[in-house]
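Handout, page 2. Input:
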Amino acid sequence: VQLQASGGGLVQAGGSLRLSCAASGRSLSNDAVAWFRRAPGKEREFVAIIRSAGSTFNADSARNRFTTSRDDAANTVYLQMNSLKPKDTAVYYCAVRPLGSSDYMYWGQGTQVTVSS
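Output:
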C-alpha cells in the first residue's frame, strides 16, 4: 500500500491550498483517512479525518477553515485548506485507519505547507 500526499507549497497568509492523498494497492472506500501535521520543533498533531461514510471531524485548529473530502472512484482523499495562517506551516501527512482497526496502518510521505506572513 502506498499513499502519495501532494499539493503542498508556499502560500501567503489568507490563501488556500488543496492537499491530495492518493492511494495505490488498497481501496480506501471502507477506510477512515486522516490528516496530521508536524510543525518544526513540535510533535505531530491531528488535523482532520474523513470516515468511510463521509462524515468528517476537524481539530479545533482546523475548524471552519479546512474541509476533507473523498473521491472513492479516484481512490483519493483531499484536504482543502482555506484562510491559511503562518502557524499552519508544517509537513502534512495522510494516514489510513482500516475498517475495524484502531490504528493508522498506512502513512504517506508528507507534503510541505509553508504559509508566509
